[in-house]
Amino acid sequence: MSNPRTLQAGEVAPGDELPVLDVPVTATSIVAGAIASRDYQDVHHDRDLAVARGSKDVFMNILTTNGYVGRYVTDWAGPEAVVRSIDIRLGAPNYPGDSMRMSGQVAEVESGVVTVSVRGANSLGDHVSGTVVLELPGEAA
Hints:
5-stranded antiparallel sheet, alpha+beta, 3 helices, 23% helix, Thiol Ester Dehydrase, Chain A
């Protein structure tokens, strides 16, 4: 899905849909994300302890989810887009063996600043929802 060139401000409009991205959720991606974000909470890497704490398995941390949200939007927008903010809420956990389907829609465009509504859903429901605000070149922001 990666866009080799950056979208220009005049190329997007409210209502535009982003391409869907399916993200496989594996134990490796969950543990790697936790380690990369220095989140050593046991529920993100130790299945036995996660189950003892009431979870069915290890689950993805919010920092990994935030990274996937940022990647999803910047892959669509291109390498010169500048992320101004990411505001997300977590819902259903991402467990190994599932898939997170990322989708998005342009909510607002004003002076080169684009607000995108994002959603990442798995078999249990919405894992993440929120907005990403980014700046595109081509119009004074």
